[in-house]
Amino acid sequence: MGRRRRQLGRGRARRRRRAPGRTTADVIQIVDGRVAASAHDDLGRLLAGELVYTGALRTNLAAIAPRVPVRGGWSPVASEYFAISADVHVVLGHLAPEAYDCPTPDGRPPTAPFARERIARLVCSDVEQLDTEEIDAIAAHLHAEQLRQIEEAARRVQRALARDAPVVAVGSGAFLGREVASRLGRPVADPPWSATHGEMAPAAALAALLAARLC
């Protein structure tokens, strides 16, 4: 098959792939079947927007937003290891408890009730002070802030790409990549490998594999 027909059936010569994982989101361009990253170390990738330190599982919630909505106002967050992004995504239904496959900050189970207790601690509170709706509102804000950060980076990286270049989202946080793709108005294409391989392999290796598949 020719190059243009091997764009996962899309007939496109340009593609971008995002791979949000446990702690980071990698925003990697693939142009004309080749990895087109502008930086080759983490500092350069941070500066270029190709590396965003926010992930679907192990990101400390205090690192995602400096304040969260509480009872019609804004509360600063406690800069402690009280809760992580997996708590947010379990509460919001983005991840099943069994997908919460890293240690919880307090050692208790990765279920939604305990996740809500951990999120409440972010504002020095508990489930006796904050009801379910209030805690879920905090979770929704943190999710939106993660999307904003990844979208901001993606808009910087996408400048060299065709407007209709699709996104291939892989990794533990692939759902974040798909949501950002929707915000950007870009189609989402399935990766040419299994979900298990996509979550286990490093983002850079996946980008190189996709580039090879597209040639």
Give the SSE layout:
Blueprint: E1 14-20, E2 25-31, E3 34-35, H1 42-48, E4 51-52, E5 67-70, E6 73-76, H2 85-91, H3 112-121, H4 132-157, E7 167-169, H5 174-184, H6 195-200, H7 203-214
Parallel strand pairs: 1-7
Antiparallel strand pairs: 1-2, 2-3, 2-4, 5-6
Helix pairs in contact: 2-3, 2-4, 4-5
Polypeptide structure, described:
The protein has seven helices and seven strands, in the order βββαβββαααβααα. The chain has helices at residues 42-48, 85-91, 112-121, 132-157, 174-184, 195-200, 203-214, and strands at 14-20, 25-31, 34-35, 51-52, 67-70, 73-76, 167-169. The strands form two sheets. Strands 1, 2, 3, 4 and 7 form a five-stranded mixed sheet that branches. Strands 5-6 form a two-stranded antiparallel sheet. Helix 2 (85-91) packs across helix 3, helix 2 (85-91) crosses helix 4 (132-157) and helix 4 crosses helix 5 (174-184). The model is unreliable at 1-20 (pLDDT under 50).
Keywords:
215 residues; Nucleotidyltransferase, domain 5; 2 domains; 5-stranded mixed β-sheet
Brief account:
Helix content is 37%, strand content 13%. The chain has seven helices and seven strands; from the N terminus they run βββαβββαααβααα.
